Description:
Blueprint (H helix, E strand, L loop, with lengths): L1 H6 L2 H53 L9 H13 L2 E7 L4 E4 L12 H6 L5 E5 L4 E11 L14 E12 L1 H52 L12 H51 L5 H32 L7 E5 H18 L3 E6 L4 E5 H17 L6 E8 L3 E8 L21 H7 L5 H11 L3 E7 L3 E9 L5
Parallel strand pairs: 7-9
Antiparallel strand pairs: 1-2, 1-5, 3-4, 4-5, 6-8, 9-10, 10-12, 11-12
Helix pairs in contact: 2-3, 2-5, 6-7, 7-11, 8-9, 9-11
Bound molecules: adenosine-5'-diphosphate (ADP).
Amino acid sequence: xxxxxxxxxxxxxxxxxxxxxxxxxxxxxxxxxxxxxxxxxxxxxxxxxxxxxxxxxxxxxxxxxxxxxxxxxxxxxxxxxxxxxxxxxxxxxxxxxxxxxxxxxxxxxxxxxxxxxxxxxxxxxxxxxxxxxxxxxxxxxxxxxxxxxxxxxxxxxxxxxxxxxxxxxxxxxxxxxxxxxxxxxxxxxxxxxxxxxxxxxxxxxxxxxxxxxxxxxxxxxxxxxxxxxxxxxxxxxxxxxxxxxxxxxxxxxxxxxxxxxxxxxxxxxxxxxxxxxxxxxxxxxxxxxxxxxxxxxxxxxxxxxxxxxxxxxxxxxxxxxxxxxxxxxxxxxxxxxxxxxxxxxxxxxxxxxxxxxxxxxxxxxxxxxxxxxxxxxxxxxxxxxxxxxxxxxxxxxxxxxxxxxxxxxxxxxxxxxxxxxxxxxxxxxxxxxxxxxxxxxxxxxxxxxxxxxxxxxxxxxxxxxxxxxxxxxxxxxxxxxxxx
Length: 484
Ligand code: ADP
């Protein structure tokens, strides 16, 4: 487990990449310099020996060496050449007989080798045997017929191949030089490796540092020594992480704040009806001579307060129910126009009290597969808000429409509207708009989040458009056929 984590370290990976990327070119350069030196040295040696052999071949003809190999001058030249290049030279005549061998071991023998046969036809050949460390060369011994020796068969100027010179030269000196060069290159290579190692460590650390800084700052936020936001700008990538973290953190702070606000809101909302009911009950208890009418009126007020308390508790329970995964939809085929009409009928008395004119516009007859209770909750909440956050004499219009896949219910009011910066927040749980009006109007900040949860369960969407002072429009869009 520990080993796997070690391999997943970005620092380690960067180190390996930098190290390898640095090593490859230096190894290639090291190898190619040695190789090209070797090629060049072998070529120079081959050309040198070939030139010497060509000169020697001319002398062999001049001294008629192929017929009488006793010429001291030529023998001295042959020995000099073989000593100079620490090799062996053989003179072979055109009957493939070895006339002279500077090693003195093969004279008189016949040389049957492809190179020699080809050489007798005029081609110079050279072979480099890397494994055994020598170069083998053949040079033809040619004679150009002069006017004196010209016959009918061999007219003047004819080139005749009289034999071949076969030489082998050791490449030990080249190899020794290469060995020395290799040793030096190895020292340089070791220095390069050490430098690269250090550079890779430093670079890997520097490159990963911004990520370390992010973890440190997150750790500080976690332990409470810092309350954000993070500030690490080095890379685009770290900037992305930082801005994602900051927005998540901001969201969490908001949620936390909303939660705190919710607790105080709910406690307040739950306390208000209780306090009113207690005051009413106390005044009835302390006054012994209460007329029956006053008694009845107080009792009905107490009932109203209890109903309000009940409503708040029910909203909370509703929200908890929608929250649970177990909250399955109870799908049935529902006439949406009729359902809206029923809800409007229920809410009309409140609208009348608030002097709001409620209108239903049915652009299409819609029958959809929905959970009737949950959809009623959605529409009631939206229409209640359209009445609540409106001013007397204004209107609220509910429009039912559909296309071939979705139906929409639009709840539009001409009320106070919602400021643009609050539009994103209205669906958040426990969110209540501008505190002054919300406190006067009364509510828990749960209505729209309940509506949103219910719409999402139907795989639908709920959106809002609003202009402060002009009104708001909430649109619910739900598939006609339930997608479960
Ligand atoms: P509540 O109405 O209990 O406060 P909601 O979740 O229903 O909670 O609404 C959240 C907030 O959104 C309200 O406090 C209000 O500020 C704003 N809001 C909702 N509907 C409207 C509307 N039709 N017009 C203006 N503001 C609205």
